[in-house]
Design a protein that fits this description.
Layout: E1 6-7, E2 27-28, E3 31-32, H1 33-45, H2 50-62, E4 63-66, H3 73-80, E5 88-90, E6 93-98, E7 108-109, H4 120-124, H5 126-132, H6 134-141, E8 144-145, E9 156-158, E10 164-166, E11 171-172, E12 176-178, E13 184-186, E14 191-192, E15 197-199, E16 202-204, E17 209-210, E18 215-217, E19 220-222, E20 227-228, E21 231-233, E22 236-237, E23 242-243, E24 248-250, E25 253-254, E26 259-260, E27 265-266, E28 277-280, E29 285-288, E30 296-298, E31 303-304, E32 309-310, E33 314-316, E34 321-322, E35 331-332, E36 336-339, E37 342-345, H7 348-360, H8 368-378
Parallel strand pairs: 1-4, 5-7, 9-12, 10-13, 11-14, 12-15, 13-16, 14-17, 15-18, 16-19, 17-20, 18-21, 19-22, 20-23, 21-24, 22-25, 25-30, 26-31, 27-32, 30-33, 31-34, 33-35, 34-36
Antiparallel strand pairs: 2-3, 4-6, 5-6, 8-10, 28-29, 36-37
């Protein structure tokens, strides 16, 4: 893998997704941003002459990429032509910067660049990304197409069999998998349980489980060690999250270490079919998203109680515990505890205690530097809106 380092430009446009998803760690389809850049760079330099490709590798070895800059062939070409020492900008946003030890030249300005600018891109682009990343994922996992693996007779594949890729240890039992609209990628030691119906494009990460009788519509991306039940449509679970019971989640993004209680439901379409407005952290207002379908964006370590209802275009900050009858507020600030009109701020020590317990169940430890980051986030004060 090409050595690539990233910087975070401090933009809050991906709120409520926080530090755990910066510096190349954001899950884009089936790969992290760092893995996706590596894939595109390798593909691109194979198509250009050796001396020119060395320019790209030198840039990546001696500089850093913005962790919102998406990898494309045009992005690699821009790096190829970038003079050593000249930082790169696009519409005022830094895309690339050289290490401080390198003599600085006048900055350069890109004419185009694709940037992550909203969490909704994660589900809107999931199908395109998963489809593009199939071969890289197969290589990463040493996965094989289903045509090369004897599938159990109780598993039905609808569509191209070679579009079902299975990593070592992955299991599918008495389920049907439709690859007609896109590939289905089953990660190491993942499982699709009995009675489930799956439609691609779908990425199922390592040790993740789709529970009995589930319905999952692509494009959907499910990161490592998730538990998914009920009905899911065009959504992204970034990893280590639970939706273990019935209930609908559509056009949504769910952060790390979240838990959706039984019969939690998201609305993803307004009753008048108009476009969805989303809370903007910078303006403190609801702005037009341009999307007709948008459900829930939930930050890390947030939870919902049983029968929780989230309205169309809901934003839930990290560290929240949401419960109670009726639809919840469309923006719930970080570390909120309550439901409806009754809210208080979650006690920080109790939040940390819960986070430790949740993470230990998946064999992870909450580190001291992570606690410090959460403390800084906790001290920022916002109001329920």
């Amino acid at each position: 893998m090409t050595k690539i380092t990233f910087f975070h430009d401090k933009s809050s446009c991906l709120y409520p997704l926080g530090a755990a998803h910066t510096e190349g760690k954001m899950l884009l389809g089936a790969l992290t941003l760092a893995e996706y850049w590596d894939m595109v760079v390798r593909s691109s330099i194979n198509n250009i002459e050796q001396g020119v490709s060395q320019n790209v590798l030198t840039s990546l070895q001696r500089g850093q990429l913005n962790d919102r800059w998406l990898p494309t062939a045009d992005a690699v070409k821009t790096l190829k032509d970038l003079p050593v020492g000249a930082d790169l900008y696009f519409n005022g946003t830094p895309l690339f910067r050289w290490n401080a030890s390198i003599e600085q030249l006048e900055p350069q300005f890109a004419t185009n660049a694709e940037l992550l600018s909203t969490p909704t891109q994660l589900f809107s682009n999931a199908g395109e990304w998963i489809t593009e990343q199939v071969q890289a994922v197969a290589k990463k996992w040493a996965a094989k197409p289903a045509s090369q693996i004897p599938l159990p007779s109780h598993v039905q594949v609808i569509g191209p069999v070679d579009s079902l890729l299975i990593a070592p240890g992955a299991r599918a039992n008495a389920c049907n998998i439709n690859t007609s609209a896109g590939p289905v990628l089953l990660g190491p030691d993942s499982e699709i349980q009995e009675g489930s119906s799956i439609r691609g494009p779908l990425y199922l990460g390592a040790k993740s489980v789709i529970k009995m009788g589930s319905k999952v519509y692509g494009p959907t991306s499910i990161g490592d060690q998730c538990r998914i039940g009920g009905e899911v449509s065009n959504s992204v679970f970034l990893g280590f999250a639970n939706k273990g019971h019935d209930g609908f989640v559509g056009n949504s993004v769910i952060g790390h270490w979240c838990n959706l209680g039984a019969a939690t439901n998201t609305s993803n379409l307004k009753s008048n079919y108009s476009t969805v407005r989303l809370w903007d952290k910078d303006t403190g207002k609801y702005d037009e998203s341009g999307l007709q379908f948008c459900g829930l964006i939930m930050g890390d370590h947030s939870k919902s109680g049983i029968n929780t209802m989230f309205n169309t275009g809901s934003i839930v900050g990290p560290g929240c515990n949401v419960f109670g009858s009726g639809f919840q507020p469309k923006h719930i600030p970080p570390f909120s505890w309550g439901g409806g009109a009754d809210w208080q701020k979650h006690e920080f020590d109790k939040f940390i205690q819960t986070a430790r317990s949740v993470m230990s169940r998946r064999g992870h430890e909450l580190l001291d530097n992570e606690i410090e980051l959460w403390k800084k986030e906790y001290l920022r004060d916002t109001k329920i809106t």
